Amino acid sequence: MSVLAKAREAVIGKPRDPMNPETRRHIALIAFFAWVGLGADGLSSSCYGPEEAYLALGAHTQFGLYLAVAIAVTVFIISLAYNQVIELFPNGGGGYKVATQLIGPHAGLTSGAALIVDYVLTVAISVASGADAVFSLLPLAWHPWKVPFEIAMIMVLITLNLRGMKEAIKILLPIFVGFVVVHVVLIGYGIYAHAERLPALIPATVNETTALARETSWMFVVGTMLLAYSQGGGTYTGLEAVSNNVNTLAEPRIRTGKWTMFYMAFSLAFTAGGIMLLYLLWDAAQSPGQTLNAVVFMSVIEHFDLGSPFANATGLLIVLALEGGLLFVAANTGFLGGPAVLANMAADSWVPRHFRELSSRLVTQNGILLMGFAAIGVLIWSQGSVALLVVLYSINVFLTFSISLYGLCVFWVRNRRSAPIWKRRLLLSLVGLIVTSSILTVLVVEKFTEGGWVTILITGLVIAGCMAIRRHYDGARAQLRTADALFEAKLPWDDHRPVPPLDPAAPTALLFVGKHRGVGVHALLWVLRLFPGHFKNFVFVSVGEVDAQSYAGEGALRTLRYTIENSLRYFVRYCHAHGIAAEFYVGFGIEPVEEFVKLAEQVFKKYPNAVCFASKLVFARVNFLTRWLHNRTPLELQERLHLEGRQMVLLPMKVA
């Protein structure tokens, strides 16, 4: 093993066998680990969502009581609606699959593009908020180092996620548990310490609301509350993460997913609603260089009195460190959800196929790298401004929410005759749609000139890019389908001829074939034409690439195996029907080139006089995009075999 390979293994970990059933069981997430890995984003939004909503009230802080109730209710409405998504799409895909299959492919594209941008912003805003929490306790002179600190944290998270989802979660678990325990204690004590204010809080809030309505109008009151409620829309982000990653959960997936959603909803409703209530009870006010959470928690800790000012300051340091730590854990959700969305979109040809590929650790490393480096670019551009990032973030979150909930409404209306409880589920989806679309409308209108146009522009550019990629793939696929039909039509055969025996000492043609039968037939016919009667044996070798889609479940792997082996039997049958001795070899793995080389070595041991052949697609217009959108397996395989002294011939197949 080379020094570079040893270093990679030390950092990333040893390779995993995707075909071993124990591997799948090892990396699957139980509800608790899923809550930590996928729920941290939602729970962490309590560190900035309630603050944004409370500050948006301005001088009318008495409305904070309404917001506390509205936050808790909204969390459960969205969570219950997404339970339906988990039931309908137990293999994952979430908002993208809902929009694609229940509305249409372009609705799916819009939802998927919004999710991609959303998950990039999840990483950016979580890390930026975490840095704000950490730097709240540092001198102002240190604040210029905040963005470099954020970039360093993203690089750490990239490394952790390249090791594997479960490994990253286990490392971040103590931070998550510490945050939950400390915040439950602080919120509980903070409410208990000022419990005497609670009985008068409700009537006082109602009286102040009525008085304000008389002075201005009810329209002003409702508008103020709706604006603040929308500004706090970041509180609900992350609730869709479970539905996007159901395929990573332990069996039974649906039950595990629902328990995970319950943990997420309850913890977020308690934490976000509780913090909003603390703002009211403790009369929280902004302080330069500090978050509102830092201010109110310091007041609670000083009231609790740990024994000395130093102890109180240390207590706050621990709280903010855990808050900052949880926000870094929450950034991990972007590294879990974003690559999953990209893999699903790659399966539908909206993004390059490389985003379906798995690494040796069975993670979609290309998606992880894209999420990380895109988030770094966003942080450098925004200079880590949470206020700006929240606007960009929230718009796409609620766009996805609204599209998904609309899709559910369409589904229950279409299936009203076969679903006995369709009315209840339609009502839940409809209420959720009204809530999320209202927030989306207010955010776009109010924040369009304050950064909202940026996220709309970015999402639009992503959609345009995806459409261009899909158009290219559709064109190439149409020509390959034409080739499949054309070549198969030229292959008459007689299945009644006796099967000829194999002669290992005779010249042998080793043909590497893929999933497109026409491409394989193209290679076979050219070999027969170029070397008439020379090769006495034909050996067909194919590798089933285990990617994010085929690894979604054991059923998907069985389908992959059946498809590959059925295609290989087709070639062998053709050769036998024409009096040519033939057999096939098949392998499965995450690195097709490596598997092809291994299988080729087996063939060479049995057939020492073998020469390798493969078709290579040649495009009329070659540019960076065409090179990147299609794999270079034939060229890489030829290079590997040539280095080992083996002969391999590439047979060009033109694609317009």
Provide a short characterization of the protein structure:
The protein has helices at 3-12, 21-27, 31-44, 49-56, 64-88, 94-102, 105-135, 146-163, 165-193, 198-215, 218-231, 241-244, 253-281, 292-304, 309-347, 365-382, 386-414, 422-489, 517-530, 554-577, 592-606, 624-629, 633-643; strands at 508-512, 537-545, 581-589, 610-619, 648-655.
Explained architecture:
- The model has no long low-confidence stretch (mean pLDDT 82).
- The chain has two domains: 25-471, Amino acid/polyamine transporter I; 489-655, Rossmann fold.
- It is 69% helix and 6% strand.
- The chain has a five-stranded parallel sheet, with helices on both faces.
- The longest helix is centred in the C-terminal third of the chain and has 68 residues, at 422-489.
- The chain is elongated, with a radius of gyration of 29 Å.
- It is α/β, with parallel strands linked by helices.
- The chain has helices spanning 3-12, 21-27, 31-44, 49-56, 64-88, 94-102, 105-135, 146-163, 165-193, 198-215, 218-231, 241-244, 253-281, 292-304, 309-347, 365-382, 386-414, 422-489, 517-530, 554-577, 592-606, 624-629, 633-643, and strands at residues 508-512, 537-545, 581-589, 610-619, 648-655.
- The chain is built from 23 helices and five strands.
Which structural traits does this protein have?
656 residues, alpha/beta, Amino acid/polyamine transporter I, Rossmann fold, five-stranded parallel sheet, 23 helices, 69% helix, elongated
